[in-house]
């Protein structure tokens, strides 16, 4: 089990909301990130991190960016 931090950026605040999720795989992490974005029209982007390492970022348009650090390790 992995513990991930979801930093949810929204148009209503300059400070992201922190959501902690326990996941078993990357597919679940992406599904939960999409669900977090869908909860409010004000939510713009989710940064998903494991400890201090950025795993990926997902925006409202469905675009996803994988961390350069992560893609080099894969």
Taking the sheet with the most strands, its summary is:
5 strands, antiparallel
Number of domains: 1
Structural shape: globular
Low-confidence stretches: none
What structural class should be given to the helix and strand makeup? alpha+beta
% residues in beta strands = over 45%
Helix content: 25-40%
Mean pLDDT across all residues, rounded? Answer: 90
Q: How many separate helices?
A: 2
Strand order, sheet with most strands:
2-1-3-4-5
Order of helices and strands: EEHEEEH
Q: Measured on Cα atoms, how large is the radius of gyration?
A: 12 Å
Write down how many β-strands occur, each being a DSSP E stretch of 2 or more residues: 5
Distance between the termini: 19 Å
Could you please describe the fold and organization of this structure?
This protein has 74 residues and is an alpha+beta fold. It has one domain (2-73). The two termini are 19 Å apart. It has a five-stranded antiparallel beta sheet with strand order 2-1-3-4-5. It is built from two helices and five strands.
Structure at a glance:
The protein is built from 2 helices and 5 strands. It has helices at 26-38, 68-73; strands at residues 2-10, 13-23, 43-50, 53-59, 64-66.
